[in-house]
Amino acid sequence: MQTFTTISPVVDFNQLDEPFLVAGPCSAETEEQVLETARELAKNPKVKAFRAGIWKPRTRPNAFEGHGGPALSWLIKAREETGLPVTTEVANAAHTEEALKAGVDILWIGARTTVNPFSVQEIADVLKGVDIPVMVKNPVTPDLQLWIGAMERLQNVGLTNLAAIHRGFTSFEKTKFRNSPEWSIPIEFKRLMPGIPLICDPSHIAGNRVLLFHVAQKALDLDYSGLMIETHPRPDEAWSDAKQQITPEDYAGMISNLSFKRKVIETPELINQLELLRGKIDGIDTKILEIIAERMDVVRSIGEYKKENGLTVLQINRWSDIFENRLKNGLSMGLTEDLIHQLYELIHLQSIELQEKIIRGSSEA
Ligand code: PEP
Ligand code: MN
Known about the structure:
The structure is a single chain. This protein is α/β, with parallel strands linked by helices and 365 residues long. 49% of the residues lie in helices and 10% in strands. An 8-stranded parallel beta barrel has the order 1-2-3-4-5-6-7-8, surrounded by 5 helices. The radius of gyration is 28 Å and the shape is elongated. The termini are far apart.
């Protein structure tokens, strides 16, 4: 095994000439797990820094909250062995002091800390006069100003070696992502803070292994300056974020398959245009649902009328007329026969079912 002496690794975020690739486990679980992961990752010259969480902010209590201070020495050992600069998350003044004392090379502020200006300020106060690179994750809420505010608090105490990490945002709607990427926010961040490199954390955006590549490639296409990806020697056994971690071997495969040069032209203007159109679609869909609900109300009244007058639910001539008329109407609007057919079959079926329930006197109607 190759042993390196400490080479005082320096990272200058103002002068990155290669993609800044950070990898390592979500949490430092044991000294052996930390060293094993770091050794594997260090075989890949593209990896520029080693990460491991020591103070773990967990959404619910009683989950593994990290080993705290004692695990700092594992990180330092990993650096001594591999030469990789090491980074960990700090969430308050005490963490920051301990990490500085131990000699951690790069600090990061996590998403649950960036939301709180008091916490960010107490970290900034400890860092006054210290020349250390700091990465700031976006806040969990989709609030660009909070993210920028955290950067400004660090700049105000004299820090100049800063990077931003995009890790996605909590969203009320269920999406396929653990944290919705909301790409327009980091793009706007880049426009407003052009000097600060933007790094993507596909692990926390995706929340699973399947989407990881797609998110990483998208970030590179949008000209991000680097990636932070969680890696673990046995991901399924990880003490935190097991679903989203990959082995160092899979990581190496993924990095070699990513295209670092491909650029798509997704300027802020284009993204904003896309957001505008998506907003329109959302509005139209609401109207479609409202109109269907209104139609079902009328169907309900018809059902009650049929019940009172002893009429059958299905009156086939009426249905044939409706279908013919809607087909003609829809075709003249440029819709396909297939769409009109499927749509009306569904609407008609639901109408019949509702009327049947009314006639049977079911309480569901
Ligand atoms: C992490 O990087 O392990 C972490 C806790 O991230 P975030 O702050 O983005 O949730
Ligand atoms: Mn994690």
